[in-house]
Design brief:
mainly beta; signal; 3 helices; Lipocalin; 9 strands
Length: 133
């Protein structure tokens, strides 16, 4: 259950930058994974103006696959999250069949922070860049 919780919450992606030179190196597009390395997410720019953020479940470690989480492979956990600041997006995320609000913030070229709340339950996950697209 811990793996599926991390998998779903980690699908909430976004970005943040503190300097102009660093902002040039910051790119959310790529394949990202949580510290437990049980899943990977493909994050891309999307939308009419290509500034929104989309993320889908790209891969689940074979030994952690089950009927519940393999049905999520290839599905969007979020689509067209609007930019809410430099390297930061906020919008609706699908989590366990519920639509909730979440944030994605890029902390560095290789780190994303994803956070979301459902009622009183909140979670934060840090993702590491696995590869570029």
């Amino acid at each position: 259950m811990r793996g599926i919780k991390t998998l779903l919450v980690a699908g909430l992606f976004g970005l943040f930058s503190t300097g102009v030179s660093m902002a040039q190196d910051m790119n959310p597009e790529g394949i990202w994974q949580p510290a437990n390395k049980e899943s990977r997410y493909k994050i891309t720019y999307c939308g009419d103006d290509n500034t929104k953020l989309c993320g889908l479940v790209h891969w689940i470690q074979p030994e952690h696959q089950n009927a519940e989480n393999t049905s999520l492979l290839g599905t969007y956990l979020f689509s067209e999250l609007p930019r809410r600041g430099e390297n930061k997006w906020r919008g609706k995320i699908t989590l366990r069949g519920h639509t909730i609000r979440g944030n994605v913030t890029q902390l560095s070229p290789d780190k994303l922070k994803v956070d979301a709340c459902m009622l009183i339950w909140c979670e934060e996950v840090t993702l590491d860049k696995f590869s570029d697209l």
